[in-house]
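Our collaborator T.R. sent over the components below with a one-line note: 'Predict the complex.' Nothing else. No constraints on interfaces, no templates requested, no preferences about which chain binds where. So this is a plain run: every listed entity goes in together, and whatever single assembly comes back becomes the starting point for the next discussion.
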Amino acid sequence: MDNPDASTDSEVKVTGVLNPDKLKELGYIPSKQRLLKGPVAIFECVEPIPCNVCVFSCPFKAVVMDKITDMPKVDFNKCTGCGLCVAQCPGQAIFIVDYSPKGETGVLTLQYDLTQPPDKGEEVILLDRKGEELGKGRVLKVYKHKRSEAFVVTIEVSKEFLMNARAIKVRR
Amino acid sequence: MLRNRRIESHPILHFQRGKEVTIFFEGTPIKAFEGESLAAALYASGIDVFRWTPKLGRPRGPFCMVGKCGSCMVEVNGVAVRSCITPVREGMNIRRLRGLPTLPKNLDRMIEKENSDNPFEEVKTDVLIVGGGPAGMAASEVLASNGMNVFLVDDQIRLGGQLIKQTHIFFGSQELFAGKRGFRIAEEYEAKLRSLKNLHILLQTTAIGVFKEGVLLLNKGKGLIIKPKYVVLSAGAFENYLLFENNDLPGVMGAGGAQTLMNLYGVLPGREVVVVGSGNVGLIITYQLLQAGAKVKAIVEAAPRIGGWFVHAAKVRRYGVPILLRHTVIAAEGKDRVRAAIISEVDERWEPVKGTEKRIECDTILLAVGLTPNTELVRQFGVKTVYVPELGGLVPVRNKYLETNIPNVFVAGDVAGVEEATTAFIEGWIAAYSILIKEKGPQSQYVKKRNEYIRMLDEYRSSPVSARVRSGLRHVEVGGS
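Returned assembly:
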């Protein structure tokens, strides 16, 4: 029980980069049907740290934990993809993906507080989990959350990047 | 030499600088702002060397920024001061210190007092709390709002300990503070404390030592003897050094010191940085440097795995910051300021491997290699300490109510073992309710609250990421009366 490796994936603690297969294993990837239905939260929280901000931030009770040191369990049928958890996650570990729009582009929502936020309509560079540039996206919406003071940025991106784009570079 | 290191744009912080004043650095006028420390003002103007050491004449610059190391000592109007805990004042004359300082001329004021019968003002109080970080603030709030007369002393210019420099959103329980930024939590808590009538907050005040007459405090040069019924020691911890060639060169700084410059005073510690240590402190400071506009060339870590939480590592990896495991810094290059870090691989025994050296150009090397509890005063009180590496060094032995072997002397926060802000708050509350129970008897509202916080603390520490802390606590937590 006291072995720090016991419930912590050791690969992520070597690379600092999550392998998306790991998300599937942990039950963090919704069914294809659910993904196509509309926006939904993808949690990249893979370590049982003492934190329950997502549980309290969800107005639909879609995230549950028995103990504060549990990893979040997400009910994708209750999740509406509203993004309130994204705004408050201290680990910037939650993303909203939306595959429902017809055509090639979907919608990605993430937390941003690295620089001043991008403007609506602005083009931003999409970065993957290693900081490599994937392509570009266009900002659809930006707002500042009151409690966390973080910006929540919603971006139009190619559907092929929805599961890999995990940060943005704002050109200033 | 002079250039502006002030941060003009920040995504989270809005630096409210005080009234502009002029100070004189070896005759040159420098712009500074009321409310900031002298070290921050000098550093902001591009000054790297603050003093030269007595024997070898080696240059030194700010390291800890909280008055613990003496590396930033300068002469102000002929008196040697630690510039990081000295607020700027209009017209100050500053000289870099060459060798040892001379005795301050106003020393005779204190000597004169020695001849009188009652040299220091004496004050009786219910509780003395030493250290105004999360633990001390938490204990102060509970005690003062339950009718106790409390003195809270801290040697810094501002209340809040490390919390005032934390720009990240807090983890933990939303019932407490999670979801808010650290500096906001400090702001809100300070406002709460300022409204409590029987709480006396003394900043820029050092608890000098324990005497028969009481605890001697030095408040901006004025002595005060305080006689408390109870004491809470919550003086926190100081940053560890790392041994490498030229580790005293200006530009080698503690991660916490850099945080003070950057997030409290809005001064960029460096443009190109190498961070040593991948614990949460190293990972968090890296992200904060990116927010402030610096470039982090690499994080180097001697261990074979990242020390801090994955989420913190992921945040910096997404912006391309490399984390070099099994690497360490073996030397700094530069004359009056760091110009490069020489890093090298380490073997199984953590020894540098010859032939693997790499040179990384940078102007700053930040050390995030752990903290050591500030137990000087704890030990002076006669509190038993034991060496527990998992908790950062010598730590006080205590029961689960945080009372030590010296009756009525309590400990809370990092001084009792290096952990983090949320657990420090909880320990402060536990210590405070324990004092209330001792003073007023086991009233159910106090006992209930204390049990609640003890349970909360246990739950926090039940995570695998707290395994080290749990194993360390086994050596220092005894019984429980």
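Summary for T.R.: The radius of gyration of chain A is 16 Å.
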